[in-house]
Design brief:
The chain has 97 residues and is mainly alpha-helical. 82% of the residues lie in helices and 0% in strands. It has 3 helices and no strands. Helix 1 runs antiparallel to helix 2 and helix 1 packs parallel to helix 3. It is rod-shaped, with a radius of gyration of 21 Å.
C-alpha cells in the first residue's frame, strides 16, 4: 500500500529527474506516480492525511511549475535556433549574388 510519504518521494524523484536533465525517465515516473496516487486515494483516510496531502499537492504544483519553466526555456531555444537558421540562410543567399 502506498503512503503519502512514498507519493512525496515519487514527486521528489520526478523533480530530481527534471532538474538533472534525465527527461527520458520522466514519463514513466509520472505514469507510475499517477497510478500510485489513484490507488492511494481509493483507500486513504483523507482527513487523517490532510497535512501530508497538502504538502504533496504543493510538491506537485512545484513540479508542474518547473516543467512549464523548462518548456518555456526549450521554446525560446527553438525560436532562437529558427531565427539563427533563417539568418544564416539569408547570409548564404546574399553571398551568392
Amino acid at each position: 500500500m502506498h503512503s503519502v510519504e512514498t507519493l512525496q518521494s515519487e514527486i521528489a524523484s520526478i523533480r530530481s529527474a527534471i532538474t538533472h536533465g534525465e527527461l527520458a525517465a520522466v514519463p514513466a515516473l509520472l505514469e507510475q506516480h499517477d497510478l500510485h496516487l489513484h490507488e492511494y486515494c481509493k483507500g486513504a483516510d483523507v482527513e487523517a492525511a490532510r497535512d501530508g496531502l497538502t504538502a504533496l499537492h504543493a510538491m506537485q504544483q512545484d513540479v508542474i511549475a518547473l516543467m512549464r519553466e523548462r518548456q518555456q526555456r526549450l521554446l525560446e531555444l527553438m525560436r532562437a535556433h529558427r531565427h539563427s537558421h533563417h539568418a544564416a540562410r539569408a547570409y548564404t543567399r546574399a553571398g551568392q549574388f
